[in-house]
């Protein structure tokens, strides 16, 4: 089966991750973890942010090593980037997490205003419960998670929406948001609500030097939790394509050029004006580049006549996809030639 062949690519990338021996866990990350653990007993609520695409692998390991002053009842799991995840799988995860009596869960999209408003309402409600209904109390929330799950994007959105409705309006400060892990180095506080007054502490991402299982490494490499500079980008891309090729999701991309969408695989460098035609600004799947990539992948997979259950055949398809994507985006093929 194709899944078995894709598993080989996963093992290859997993071996590369293990070979790093936790190189991503430097002194700054160790210091951040100590600082977080010091604050855990002092806050009212802990929001553990995970990546909705890999909810298990992106768990914050430090919370699993909690002490007696860190009860699970103060923890709330936030599955961010829900717009990038399979909705049915996210629904299953939120249902599963909610069954864990002491650990509520909510799925959010940090770029969607209504989604963040829902999260803010949940936090307000939880703080009021903790403070026994006091209206003018002050609650503190600690935002924790591994790198690149979107903590800073969440705190910025909560801060902006919350302060607009707050009585003490002022100049907003913003957390640094980056697609690269490790940009947040210090713990910073942001007021996100009044009545009750709620302050959120944004913390640096901390990734454990060791993972609970061998599947976590490749998945975290795909989602950007591990710095790309530590791994071969070709290996990461190869694993991603192997996963896409082994599943049936690509079939839904067949009609991307219908309903007024004019992007095509042969002209991926379409005018930026296409980006203004997105139906939903916060939905990354509406991005014209994303659509172009999906169309290339659909065409290469659907036209491939080999047996994807065989590793060498899957590798042949992946190599063909690299070439097709490079042609579509007018990227030099020299790098892939050197890798082959």
From TrEMBL:
Gene3D superfamilies: P-loop containing nucleotide triphosphate hydrolases (3.40.50.300)
Membrane topology of this protein: Peripheral membrane protein
Region ranges (Disordered): 257-279
Polar residues: bias regions: 257-272
GO biological process: mitochondrial translation
Keyword Disulfide bond tagged: no
Keywords assigned by UniProt, alphabetized: GTP-binding, Hydrolase, Mitochondrion, Nucleotide-binding, Transit peptide
Keyword NADP annotated: no
GO molecular function, one term: GTP binding
Protein family per UniProt: Belongs to the TRAFAC class YlqF/YawG GTPase family. MTG1 subfamily.
PANTHER family (UniProt xref): DAR GTPASE 2, MITOCHONDRIAL, MITOCHONDRIAL RIBOSOME-ASSOCIATED GTPASE 1
Full protein name: Mitochondrial GTPase 1
Organism: Panicum hallii var. hallii
Lineage: Eukaryota, Viridiplantae, Streptophyta, Embryophyta, Tracheophyta
């Amino acid at each position: 089966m194709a899944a078995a062949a894709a598993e080989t690519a996963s093992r290859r990338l997993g071996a590369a991750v293990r070979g790093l021996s936790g190189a991503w866990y430097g002194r700054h990350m160790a210091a951040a973890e100590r600082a977080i653990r010091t604050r855990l007993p002092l806050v009212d609520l802990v929001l553990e942010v995970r990546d909705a695409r890999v909810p298990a692998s992106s768990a914050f390991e430090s919370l699993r090593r909690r002490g007696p002053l860190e009860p699970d009842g103060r923890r709330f799991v936030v599955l961010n980037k829900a717009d990038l995840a399979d909705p049915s799988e996210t629904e299953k995860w939120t249902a599963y997490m909610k069954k864990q009596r002491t650990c509520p869960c909510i799925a959010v999209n940090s770029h969607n205003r209504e989604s963040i408003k829902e999260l803010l309402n949940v936090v307000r409600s939880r703080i009021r419960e903790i403070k026994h209904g006091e209206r003018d109390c002050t609650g503190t929330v600690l935002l924790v998670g591994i790198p690149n799950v979107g903590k800073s994007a969440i705190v910025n959105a909560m801060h902006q929406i919350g302060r607009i409705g707050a009585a003490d309006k002022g100049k907003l400060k913003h957390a640094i948001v980056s697609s690269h892990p490790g940009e947040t180095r210090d713990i910073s506080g942001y007021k996100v609500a009044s009545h009750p007054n709620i302050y959120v502490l944004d913390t640096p991402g901390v990734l454990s030097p060791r993972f609970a299982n061998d599947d976590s490494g490749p998945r975290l490499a795909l989602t950007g939790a591990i710095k790309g500079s530590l791994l071969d980008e070709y290996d990461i891309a190869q694993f991603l394509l192997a996963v896409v090729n082994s599943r049936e999701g690509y079939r839904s991309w067949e009609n991307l050029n219908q309903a007024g969408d004019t992007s095509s695989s042969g002209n991926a460098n379409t005018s930026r004006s296409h980006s203004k035609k997105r139906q939903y600004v916060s939905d990354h799947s509406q991005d014209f580049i994303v659509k172009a990539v999906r169309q290339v992948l659909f065409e290469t997979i659907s036209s491939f006549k080999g047996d994807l259950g065989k590793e060498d055949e899957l590798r042949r398809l992946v190599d063909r996809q690299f070439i097709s994507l490079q042609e579509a985006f007018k990227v030099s093929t020299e790098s892939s030639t050197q890798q082959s």
